[in-house]
Amino acid sequence: MTWSKRLLDVILALVLSVLLFVPFVMLLLVLLLIEGRPLFYVSERMMTPDRAFALIKLRTMRASAGNTGVTGGDKEGRISPTYKALRKSRFDEVPQLLNVLRGQMSFVGPRPPLRIYVEDFPTLYAQVLRNRPGITGLASLRFHAHEEMLLAKTTTAAQTDHVYRTRCVPRKAILDLIYQRHQSFCFDLALIWETATRVLRRR
After folding, report:
1. What percent of the chain has pLDDT over 70?
2. Would you list the DSSP string of 94-142?
3. Which of 73, 97, 173, 197 is the most buried (most CB within 10 A)?
4. pTM of the model
């Protein structure tokens, strides 16, 4: 990671932490009243092929002992209207500002993968994870909606996993590697701006 990219991450994370503090606390109170505890969801993700970290998000799914793997149609019944709105707004990802400040993530990069996929696709992720994982990125902006559509059609955990492995992992990797080849300070700013405008339009 270049010094300019790290500096952008730290400054932007600090600014957003200040700006979002009050509305985030209010959101936590609303979630506590409507959905109860736990408010946060911590998941092991990979920063490099051999280094894991604890990714922090707001919980957007009712708790279950079998909460493993990616989210597909098989988990639809556990996502309340409140959680759907939270996912759509992307406010569930605000806690990842802490991951950015810790240096575990960047604002722009590949989405941090689960260990199981890194271990099952070692060659692919050895290339993708040359970039620090990000909150947003080229793959997130260009493929996320299509990925949600594909996974929404699944009805079992096994089917969700199969679709993700065969139709999502390879396509996202292509976009992540395109970003890697063209990564620059200006490109990062453009992707951050596009992400911000999409979030604001949704609201």
Report:
1. 97
2. TTHHHHHHTTS-EEESPPPPPHHHHHHSHHHHHHHTTSPPEEE-HHHHH
3. 97
4. 0.91
